[in-house]
Amino acid sequence: MKDLTIDHALRATWQAVSKMYNEEAKNYGLTMAIGFTLLSIDPKGGTPSTTLGPKMGMEATSLSRILKTLEQREYIIRKRNPKDGRGVLIFLTPLGLEKREESKEVVLRFNDVVKEHVSEQDLDGFFKTMGIINKLISDKKIYIKTTNN
Questions:
Q1: H-helix or E-strand spanning residue 47
Q2: Contact between 100 and 43 (Cβ < 8 Å)
Q3: Model confidence at 2: pLDDT above 90
Q4: What's the pTM value of the predicted model, to 2 decimals?
């Protein structure tokens, strides 16, 4: 394809952002996936393990590996959910809270630098466009399944 497609722009930009985050995360002994997971855990009340995967858009097997790593590094602890004995809540340890704060600072720095270089109007347009794309996908307006008889 000679012309830049929306798909290509999204993938290329996300790959660049992902690479940037992983390079920065190394300075803190983390990966982007670990930082994202720490940011997705409620720092006060913990987060049910069953809601973490969908919240992050991650498959259960990938999330299990990350949670195991977080537990080994003593960033999280798992506790039984007092409201549902079958469930597990994920809590951040003091070290996990520290690493979460470092991850948050990295994300906020990215946002601040982008906001310094992109007008508010352009950012509003960007978020509006992303919202429309997400809605088109969730409403299944792009590819309609048909059955062949």
A1: strand 47-48
A2: yes
A3: no
A4: 0.85
